[in-house]
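Posting for a labmate who doesn't have an account.
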Amino acid sequence: MELKQQREAAFHDSAYTHGVRTHVSNYYLILDGCHSFYRGHLRTQCKGARVLELGCGMDSNAFFMSREGVASVVGIDISSVAIAQAEQRAARENIQRAQFRVMDAEALDFPDNSFDLICGAAILHHLDLHRTLSELARTLAPNGTAIFLEPLCHNPVINLYRRLTPALRTEDEHPLSMADLKGMEKYFSKIDKQYFHLTSLAAAPFYKMPAFDKLVHFCDTSDRALFKIAPFLRRYAWTVGLIFSKPVKTAQAATAATVRAK
């Protein structure tokens, strides 16, 4: 295992063991809009599908999708603690269609075209994008889709929050830039992007208010309008939803898969 993967595994083993983000979880309640978008796509696409989830644990969407009629779902994570927690929950809930494996997403141990749907939330920005996207394009079926929720790097308020909370993140993670999004076109011929959470950032401190849900809904509606009429504001969103389709099967990815198979 490479040094970066060792650091990521150690950090997330500790995070899953000790719940390092529990004390700030209320501030993430404003993310309901992007998570509804994400789950909505999973719900419509997972029925009868072979699914791969990158980055999983006890809160894995594999459990949700197992009840929505997947053919099969595999959850992978660099953290053995995350996988153990997912397996324990699967056993408690008698989930039959899901399995969980410790695996590096930059070197997937699956044949070409293995999955109809690939998904993950806040995972790509921990990874080498070239290696990972090449692997996603290789293992995704030609007519399949992949969906991810990822943080962007341009909002100064979020960047200040990141600097003030270094213990909540790894040294290797890199929120995505607009240049990163453009570079993804090398691996997928079609990429749909949805941007979330700009004015809704201001709602985060009011999570205890009775009208908090209505405030967040108002902000989400405002954000959609702003991103439509002023596209330059999209770079300042906290989160981008990415739907990949029409994977480009590169010769480099095929060569790497052949080497791993030997």
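Reply:
Got it, the structure tokens are right above this. Strands lie at 50-54, 72-77, 98-102, 115-121, 140-151, 188-196, 239-247.
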